[in-house]
Amino acid sequence: MNSLFALKNAIDRFDVISFDVFDTLLLRPLMDPADVFEIVEEQSGEKGFACARKTAGWNSLQTVLQADSGERSLDEIYSLIPRYAHLRDVELALEDRLLVGNPETIALYNEAKRIGKKVVIVSDMYLSGEFIRKKLRDVGVDSWDGFFLSSERKCRKDTGDLFEAMLKEMDVDASRILHIGDTETSDFMRAQEKGLVSYLYPRVVNRAIEESGAYRRFLGRKPTLSRRRLVAAVAVARHIGFCQRDGSDALTDVGYQLLSVIGFAYAKFICDDARRRNINKLLLVARDGYVLEGLIKELAPDIRTYYVYAPRRDYLIAFQNFTDNSYVARWRLWLGKERRTFQHRKIALDLLKEWMGGAVAWKDESERDFLAGGKAAEDLQANLDAFTAYVKNEYSRYIAEFGFSEADRVGLVDMTSVRGTAHRLLQSFLPTRIHAYYYFRNTGRQGDWMFPDSTPFIEGDTSFCIDSGFVEYFFSAPTPSVMCVRNGKPVFESNVSFYDQYKFGCVELTRKIAVDCVRLFSKWGLSITLADFVDWKECQCEAIATKYSSELSFVRESFGIANQRNFQPLKTLVRHSLNLRVFGRVLLTAKVSVIGLKRYVTFRALGRIPVLKLRIWR
Q1: Model's pTM, two decimal places?
Q2: Alpha-carbon gap, residue 59 to 560, rounded angstroms
Q3: Measured between alpha carbons, how far is 555 from 268 in angstroms, rounded to an integer?
Q4: Residue range 86-100: average pLDDT?
């Protein structure tokens, strides 16, 4: 058997289908099973446990092999390290949390049962049969016809004895049995030596690393435990998702490889800091908080979330806080001149006409006169204070419906901000102080607002986090832009373009992927440092841009038109690369990258250490 496709078509030729358990029917999001010991040491703070546990496992195995007594148990292993005996249950609980079902092989198992084949479980493992049976049933694997576990049968698969025990008990000719497992020696060679037909199932994590240059680059920079766990977690989550969604494309790959990690890292950062500050309520600002609300609910169900609207135009008209204090400048800004589109100005004028009841005859010449500061502007100035009071009253009624009190500890969640208008608007109407969280805070434009009471996940100038607009694109709600809040409800833009509709479909797909992944990452106890996050994002952005350049071209076009941005949706699109080598070793790398309307030249020493970055306008 040399392919899973051939395996599916060959099941009906056999009488018995035999399955390995670990890394076959059950998956662990780890590159090496021994990583469990390092995780236990890290979480417990017991220095030296990982090394002692590995040594005890090896010594106990050699003892049972020499005595030809089969398999050692977990209790026997821990009897060799009494100092760490209290960590036995910790290890067992971690195994229980990490193990998940493999939908690919479980589908084979169920298909074999459906067509009337006998199925058996064969595994070398020191964990108890009770534990393994429970985990298999938890993932939907049940009603087996034979269960052969080395710790119960006192013989092992890697010596071939466990296969002999299975053949004797099942009373079936060896050539009529198909065994599926992931270990070359135990599952493939020993099975064939005993006359079985065997299929070597490629390990999910190893397969992903072989196929992905981005994974190898990420691990090559610093192969720490946290990085190994991140690669394995994404690989397993992606595998599970692809099995459930029947394959991959550009958007699903972006969802699994990039957005799931971004969403998890940022949402976990928010939840951890909110708990530290005793924040019990989080305001997710529309539209950027749409996806994040689902992620935060998965990570922190104890923190109550609210999806709120904080339109910039309501803020501008309610507080008239502009650089130029003249009423003409105020209204120019509020009517959408900063967006440079007639559509926004027209919608704003329609709202004014609706409220004023036709007090001003808004003809084409009146609009031009208004923006030039003529008679129309003077007429409107007379109603300015009354209209400001009206906007404040409308928004106050909207916020009052949430029922916040002075005793509440409230946080605000947004993606990016330059002037913090949502923070300012909500703070003005809430009876308690707000602490804001931002995915990216632009330190290059703090002249307008110094971001009081706020914590950024990433901070720097735009060139440091050029993908912030791309993240906003996929994390925003699948709804049109909000113009204002009236009668307790948002007023949306009336025109929805084809590009907006395409974006809405992208957001719904990637949101489901991100929520599924975050649920798994949280169950596995994953944690991502900022340094690992930045490196991961860089490696994945370059890989996705290269692999799906044509497929993502429409996303770039939609992103540019829908969001009025000049940035590409990916951090860097490498156009040219030049290496300077001395005796075969790369000493200096120069990469020319294009991001939106800008071209960058980046120099890295030894191929990876940033030395200089130059920006050249096209």
Answers
A1: 0.79
A2: 61
A3: 27
A4: 94
Cα 390 from Cα 394, distance rounded (Å): 6
How far apart are alpha carbons 96 and 326 in whole angstroms?
Answer: 66
Q: What is the pLDDT of residues 519-575, one digit of tens each?
A: 999 999 999 988 899 889 888 877 777 776 655 655 554 444 333 333 333 333 334
Backbone phi, psi, residue 341, to 5°: -130, 135
Report yes or no: 543 and 213 within 8 Å, Cβ to Cβ. yes
Closest CA to 277 of 431, 439, 420, 410: 410
CA dihedral 534, 422, 403, 434 (to 10 degrees): 60
For residue range 219-273, list pLDDT tens digits in order: 988 889 999 999 999 999 999 998 876 556 778 888 898 899 999 999 999 999 9
Give the per-residue pLDDT at 576: 46
Planar angle of CA 584, 586, 587, nearest 5 degrees: 120
Taking the C-alpha atoms of residue 593 and residue 596, their distance in angstroms, rounded to an integer, is 10
Contact 120, 170 (CB under 8 A): yes
Residue 186 DSSP label:
I
Q: How far apart are CA 133 and CA 123, in angstroms?
A: 12
The label of the residue with tokens 């076009």 reads 557
3-state secondary structure of 123: strand
